[in-house]
Write a structure and sequence with these properties.
The protein is α/β, with parallel strands linked by helices. Among the domains are: 2-182, Rossmann fold (3-Layer(aba) Sandwich), CATH 3.40.50; 345-420, Luciferase, domain 3; 429-565, ANL, C-terminal domain (GMP Synthetase, Chain A, domain 3). Helix content is 26%, strand content 27%. The protein has 14 helices and 30 strands. The strands form 7 sheets. Strands 25, 26, 27, 28, 29 and 30 form a 6-stranded mixed sheet that branches. Strand 26 (464-472), helix 13 and strand 27 (499-503) form a beta-alpha-beta unit. Helix 6 crosses helix 7 (216-225). The protein is globular.
């Protein structure tokens, strides 16, 4: 994938490649600096298949580091400077990095991570700043100014399509992070599809919003740079400032914006998108979680000149496996947004428990096969074997498919619709319930900004308690009586949540998605960095609504809100 960037640099070295906080970098400078870094890493002993950790905030140096590592035939491993030292240590232990490239104010984080890790070899430390921080420990072997001693020509590469380009660490069910290997060939296939479908050219200015350790960033970075377009890195401090995010799109004259739906929800709630705003914008892409239809309607009505595309895909299948561009603005807030059809080179299989295809409009689990499949989890063959299964009926006995854990249904028009997670299908009071269906009903309530539904195991006869956390839309109030009435008009009575929690904002994880474990701990009354407080019990025939308690709680400022009777 670095070859596409090299071609653009050779053709237009003076063109702008990167923009960040008022600074810019040309394709020529990006190529020359990453070439020098590639030579330095090879000289330091890094070679084909070696892992290089990247510990730095979002900045041009991080893009240089990615390219330099690839040009050294090594594998880059993005790390999060804000993660706890214990998690960083586990990433280092699992990946066994030969080198760590650092930049920015990450000295304490690097020191703490190395102190907490049990490593077979101490990694080489390099600082991609002009000089390392004072009294940096361990002492770095090189810094940015040392690159000048190395050749500006491109190093000879030996990597092929099957070689691993980078390892992305995601949360594991055992508490240990799991490293998803992504190959050069899989990324190249994705970029070729994305460039063709979205028509990315040299005249485009594309956002880079998610953290660099998030899989979507791969599409942003290499899709843009392989097209000769401008990549605009969105400063992380804007993530909770919707007005400034909107102004960023205007000032940068972006032609393409890609983010998780929660960012679009936030901007919707604060009504920061004007009618016919962002005149340069052509494409809005969203992925990572289900998007509420009212949010899509809000954006599409204000930006009729923009195409909106829902992208779906696990990290294990190289970010994007299916797509759906909305042909029109939905007319009904309850109209679900499909995840669409397979991207080029991918196949989406909807199977039952016996791995047999289900008929249209029946719910099954989604399995994916094709060119985007990851080789598996780094140094974890057991987990790899559980997730990547032999493909039934394939002529090649070695062909695999990935078990997504997502429940979907294929409609008669061939479009796939996300239903929920297989592990969120519960049985309560004898009924099988998809929590995603309840969330879809809540998304249709215009007085809510966002909501999340989860289930907690109960010792009672119902088996599971359905819990709902929600945030009222800005400037609006909705009583629990009215909210339950609206939900009851859309789902059966046995799907109505038993516990309710009104918040000022839903907690988000490092990737901008709703942090469901934090919500779960809150409902359980566990310590989760939040003050413990009471939730509201839904009314039943035995407990009328008049006696229910309603809580307001600010996740950003964790102090109990006032308690009031409905």
């Amino acid at each position: 994938m670095q070859h596409g960037v090299i071609a653009q640099a050779n053709a237009r070295p003076e063109a702008w490649a990167l923009a960040f906080k008022g600074t810019r970098m040309t394709y020529g400078a990006l190529e020359e600096t990453s070439n020098r870094l590639g030579h330095l890493l090879k000289d330091a002993g890094c070679g084909r298949g070696d892992r290089v950790g990247l510990l730095m905030p979002k900045m041009p140096a991080a893009i240089v580091a990615m390219l330099g590592v690839l040009k050294a035939d090594a594998i880059y491993v993005p790390m999060d400077p804000a993660s706890p030292a214990e998690r960083q240590a586990r990433v280092l232990e699992i990946s066994d990095c030969r080198c760590i490239l650092a930049a920015g104010p990450v000295g304490p984080a690097l020191h703490d991570a190395l102190a907490a890790a049990t490593l077979r070899q101490q990694p080489i430390i390099g600082w991609l700043d002009d000089s390392p921080p004072p009294q940096a420990t361990p002492a770095p072997a090189f810094c940015l100014r040392d690159l000048a001693a190395f050749a500006a020509t491109c190093p000879v590469s030996a990597n092929g399509g099957d070689d691993v380009a980078h390892i992305l660490f995601t949360s594991g069910s055992t508490g240990l992070p799991k490293g998803v290997m992504i190959s050069h060939g899989a990324v190249v296939n994705l970029i070729e599809w994305g460039r063709a479908y979205f028509g990315i050219t040299r005249t485009d200015r594309v956002s880079q919003h998610p953290p660099l350790r998030f899989d979507v960033s791969t599409f942003d970075i290499f899709g843009t740079l392989c097209s000769g377009a401008e990549l605009h890195l969105v400063p992380a401090e804007l993530n909770l400032l919707p007005h400034k995010l909107a102004q960023f799109i205007r000032d940068a004259r972006l032609t393409q914006w890609f983010s998780v739906p929660s960012v679009l929800n936030l901007m919707t709630n604060f009504d920061v998108v004007r009618q016919d705003d962002f005149p340069a914008l052509r494409e809005v892409l969203f992925a990572g979680e289900a998007i509420p239809t009212p949010t899509v309607i809000h954006w599409m009505r204000r930006l009729p000149h923009v195409r909106f595309t829902n992208l779906y895909g696990p990290t294990e299948t190289t970010i994007v496996s299916s797509y759906y561009s909305l042909p029109r603005c939905p007319s009904d807030e309850r109209e679900p947004i499909p995840i669409g059809t397979a991207c080029a080179g991918e196949e989406l299989l909807v199977l039952d428990d016996q791995l047999q295809p289900v008929v249209d409009n029946e719910i099954g689990e989604l399995y994916i096969r094709g060119v985007g499949l990851s080789p598996g989890y780094w140094r974890d063959p057991e987990k790899t074997q559980r997730a990547f299964l032999p493909c039934p009926g394939a002529t090649d006995p070695g062909e695999r498919m990935y078990k997504t854990g997502d429940l979907v249904r294929r409609s008669s028009d061939g479009l796939l619709h996300f239903v929920g997670r297989a592990d969120t299908q519960i049985k309560s009071r004898g009924y099988r319930i998809e929590l995603g269906e309840i969330e879809a009903a809540l998304h249709a309530v215009s007085d809510l900004q966002e909501s999340a539904v989860l289930a907690i195991k109960s010792e009672g006869f119902e088996g599971w308690l359905i819990c709902c956390a929600y945030v009222p839309a800005a400037g609006r109030t909705i009583s629990l009586v009215e909210l339950r009435k609206r939900v009851a008009a859309l789902v059966p009575g046995y799907m109505i949540p038993a516990r309710w929690l009104c918040l000022d904002v839903l907690p988000k994880n490092e990737n901008g998605k709703i942090d469901r474990p934090v919500l779960r701990n809150h409902f359980l009354g566990a310590e989760a960095g939040l003050a413990t407080s009471r939730t509201e019990e839904a009314p039943t025939e035995e407990a009328p609504l008049a006696g229910a308690l309603h809580e307001t709680h600010n996740m950003m400022n964790p102090h109990p809100g006032r308690m009031a009777s409905d």
